[in-house]
Amino acid sequence: MLASGPASRPRWEIFCQVVDNFGDIGVCWRLARDLARRGANGVRLWVDDWAVLVRICPPAADCDRQGAVWVEGVELRRWTSAFVPLIPGEIVVEAFACELPATQLEAMAALRPTPAWINLEYLSAEDWVAGCHGLASPHPRLPLVKHFFFPGFDVTTGGLLRESALLMRRDRFLADPHGRAAWLAERDIPVVPEVLRVSLFAYAQPALRGLLEAWQRMSRPVVALVPESRLVGDLAAALGVPELVPGARIDRGALSVRVLPFTDQDGYDALLWACDLNFVRGEDSFVRAQWAARPFVWQIYPQADAAHHDKLEAFLARYLAGLSTDAAAAQAHFWRAWNGCAAADATPAQAWPAFADALPELAAHARAWCDGQAAQPDLASRLTKFCSHSAGGPG
After folding, report:
1. What are the residue numbers of the active site?
2. Is the bond leading into 113 cis (omega within 30 degrees of zero)?
3. Whole-prediction pTM value?
4. Alpha-carbon distances of 68 from 76, 299, 377, rounded to whole Å
5. Cβ neighbours of residue 212 under 8 Å, at least 6 residues apart?
């Protein structure tokens, strides 16, 4: 799996600048692995924050500061300020509007045909996305044209990131009761049907204490599985304990909390599949929760001027279609409360009872939504097709 070797021109070259948390690198690493597994004839990924990459890809720790490391068919490279370009890839992807080094752009412009140049944008369900997907932006000085590529939820956009074997792996996990029971037993999680298993992954959440107290009062046992993250500090404060470390267990009333060690992406997928309800945040875990086909709660990345509220409402407008009035209202109220944009300052604890009652219908809906999205081409397939039409030429 690991090797060092001479640089050669890859088919794909992806640039990732880590802005905050693990969302940007999470998407880029999944995309790079997916392309490599599809036999993309070379995938190179540049990352500016190596420490963050190593958390989700431990073999990357074996890379020296100037060199490269190959992991799962992907050439991983440090993106430093003293950037010296290699021969650019045939398709160059700048993820989430990161700015390519000037020397890279010069190297791209010197090639004939010039590489396909893609700006992979953030995911949004808003209507304006369809009008901007695929738009061209000529470079003001160099013979290069950048195209904007927007992930999305319908045929007018770039689709969702879904590895070709993802759903098969999920279904195999769910169809193996012994393997699933062993997975749960390793984490000290009861394997009984009456327990509501919840994964909890979030940004800072001031309403956490109230929700935990609501879970403690439930007639049904709740096991909250909390992956190691910044949320663990908030969790400790909400539970009134000095600190929580991986492996910790706190029992309060009907609620039992487990703090799980940090895991890689495949491990996080398994956690989502094993739970009845998943709290996720940002973009990467948001998409994975949809592929898990379970009810979920999305905490959207907060933006200035509350612009994220429009993104939340745009997704709700799509996702709630087909639900009963009561279930749709329960989901919408809980999600808005969790994101601090509920009317009359309703809290997640106040919205929880109706949301909990709706979970059986929401479970069936989550599966139908997943199946509907899976019937569409995934992001890597659409990106490959788009670039086959736009690549090459003098720019």
Report:
1. 24, 283
2. yes
3. 0.93
4. 6, 35, 32
5. 224, 238, 239, 252, 255, 257
